[in-house]
Design a protein that fits this description.
Number of helices: 14
Bound molecules: pyridoxal-5'-phosphate
Largest sheet: 7 strands, mixed
Strand order of the largest sheet: 1-7-6-5-4-2-3
Distance between the termini: 45 Å
Strand content: 5-15%
Number of domains: 2
CATH superfamily of the largest domain: Type I PLP-dependent aspartate aminotransferase-like (Major domain)
Number of strands: 13
Radius of gyration: 22 Å
Helix content: 25-40%
CATH class of the largest domain: Alpha Beta
Shape: flat
CATH topology of the largest domain: Aspartate Aminotransferase, domain 2
Length: 386
């Protein structure tokens, strides 16, 4: 158990933070030592022939609980998936779409993995994609709401956009969707593990998250939340043994029931076959650390970040460095193309997207205010004339 009173104790889990100022959580987090230990322990068993399948299933249930607690859901409302794309597609494919139905989103600010599924739905089934324009780099909640009509079946938004990384004010969207029985589907990967993303308070009906960013896990592992009463109105398009209810955990994993099969409760129906147990072990370890610290303690704070970026705004723009603050927690720095080579030399630490440099929100035990400031200074030094 961690000493809850000490952020420093938590940081000791991240040997990387002793050597560098790590600024790349928007792309991928640093994996803690305990995740590595958990993966090593599983690999030791795989290598020596001592694999314990029952213990692996226990781990699956433990990690389902861990995800659920993080977002204020129940375990049955969590399915284990590969990534955001798989989670979003599972929900989209399971919905009984009819021609003339529509979805509302802001295509310009969604990650392509939350745009192509909708374009494909339009191509396949003629579902209308109603897209609003960004305002000041953010998804405008009022515009999203104004595009909803009697044919809207889903609204989708990222809780924090992948670029430029502003928070979306999703509470009001969730409230309207709940009132009108529209499924509100959220891409939560840039907020879960960093910001408190409470599916109850925000009226989120379904949310897909992968573990390599704020959850400090591995690529190829994620979870899908789907609210129980919505999940039970959806019919998964893919189905395999773990999505079928053969009387709870008592039935063998390879047992086959008769033709009158029932789907598992809530989001469990989206589970398919064997899991990515190594990915589950890594994320379970990092999430259990977050639970030890307490959900509130991993959440970034607004005020310290406000000061950092705003001070930078006063830098002369002739240096082609401009930092803008969301008023929340993200630094987003416009870069000039001449910087590309210099920036790529730092690509393990910071993340460049087209003409911009993405820096992370503040995750208190991984990145602290002085490090954000140091990161800004590194970037500033890279600037022509810097
Ligand atoms: C908002 C957002 N959605 C989705 C993804 C990636 O999707 P996937 O987990 O399916 O690879 C990213 C990765 O940067 C992202 O920032």
């Amino acid at each position: 158990m961690l000493d809850m009173s000490s952020i420093e104790a938590a940081r000791a889990e991240f040997p990387g933070t002793e050597e560098l100022t790590y600024m790349n959580v928007s792309a991928r987090g640093l994996t803690p030592q305990r995740s590595r230990n958990a993966v090593d322990a599983m690999m030791d068993k795989m290598q020596s022939g001592a694999t314990d399948k029952a213990a692996m299933f226990d781990l699956i249930e433990q990690s389902r609980d861990g995800y659920a607690k993080l977002i204020n859901a129940t375990s049955d409302e969590i399915s284990l998936v590969k990534n955001v794309s798989e989670g979003l597609n599972a929900i989209i494919a399971a919905y009984p779409w009819k021609s003339g139905d529509n979805v509302v989103l802001c295509q310009d600010l969604e990650h392509p993995n939350n745009v192509y599924p909708w374009r494909h739905l339009n191509r396949r089934l003629g579902v209308e994609v109603r897209s609003v324009s960004p305002r000041d780099g953010a998804i405008p909640t009022d515009e999203i709401l104004s595009q909803i009509n009697e044919n809207t079946r889903m609204v989708t938004a990222s809780s924090v956009t992948f670029a430029p990384g502003f928070r979306t004010d999703i509470g009001p969207i969730g409230a309207v969707c709940r009132e009108r029985d529209i499924l509100f589907l959220v891409d939560g990967v840039q907020s879960v593990g960093i910001l408190n993303t409470d599916v109850e308070t925000l009226n989120i009906d379904a949310m897909a998250v992968s573990t390599q960013k704020g959850l400090l896990g591995l690529y190829g592992m994620g979870f899908l939340y789907c609210r129980a009463d919505w999940a039970e109105r959806l019919t998964p398009v893919y189905l395999a043994r773990f999505g079928v209810d053969l009387g709870g955990s008592g039935a063998h994993e390879a047992s086959l029931g008769d033709d009158e099969y029932a789907l598992m409760p809530a989001a469990r129906r989206f589970d398919l076959g064997n899991y990515n147990y190594v990915g589950v072990a890594a994320a379970d370890a990092s999430i259990s650390m977050m639970h030890e610290l307490g959900r509130q303690r991993i959440v970034c704070r607004r005020h310290p970040m406000r000061h950092g970026p705003r001070r930078q705004r006063t830098k002369p723009t002739s240096r082609r460095a401009q930092c803008t603050s969301t008023g929340h927690v993200l630094l987003y720095i416009q870069i000039h193309e001449d910087w590309t080579i210099k920036i790529s030399a730092h690509s393990n630490l910071i993340d460049s997207l087209d003409q911009a440099l993405r820096m992370p929100r503040l995750n208190r035990f991984l990145i602290q205010k002085p490090e954000i400031q140091a990161g800004v200074e590194v970037v500033d030094d890279l600037a022509p004339g810097g």
